[in-house]
Fold this sequence. Notes:
Layout: H1 9-12, H2 15-47, H3 52-66, H4 70-85, H5 91-116, H6 120-128, H7 133-163, H8 175-186, H9 189-219
Amino acid sequence: MFKYQFRWDTVLGSFDFLMSGLQMTLVISAMTLVLAMILGLIIALMDMSRFPPLRWIGISIGEVIRNTPILVQLLWVYYVLPIVFSVRIESLTALVVGLSLYQAAFISEVYRSGIQGVPTGHREAAQVLGLTPIQSFFRIVLPQAVRMTLPPLASNFVQLIKFSSLGAVISVSEITRRGMELSATNFRPLETFTFIAVVYFVICWPLAMAIRWWERRLQNR
């Protein structure tokens, strides 16, 4: 019976190569989260707009993005946008744009629920104090909404770390792509991708546990 001979030294010998990919993964995730938070707020405000055309645009954007596969969206951004606009889009740019739009569609729902969760009395009190609707939103409503939405936003960061692995499909040099390149040269996919899976788990699991603890603390206040 054939017995597989494990060769973990082939992975450890390329540790720096894989860790450079991990650094790229974390940078992509951080950049994407910032952009997604900004875009998500814009989409949420469009969804709640009293101007019907603007509201329809916001709702349409969210529904289309949330109901199509993220991989298809990334491929569309990478391959289709250059054709439509006659521009060259780098693979890293396509990944950041695609992930940002995808996460923004979900973050917009988080923002919307947070904004709508602010008690009406707080808005009425702001009006009594003479604040304009814009001042009331940015000084009273938005700070409270952000506080309620921080744990879900942190959860989105964990998701982004995992979703960034899709960049391997369009040749972004994150850790999964580095693993594909390494396994193609050392012919050790079992050791290579097992190591990468462990790296993802070591990063994502503690973050997920910390977020759950944070949510419980906020609920008990």
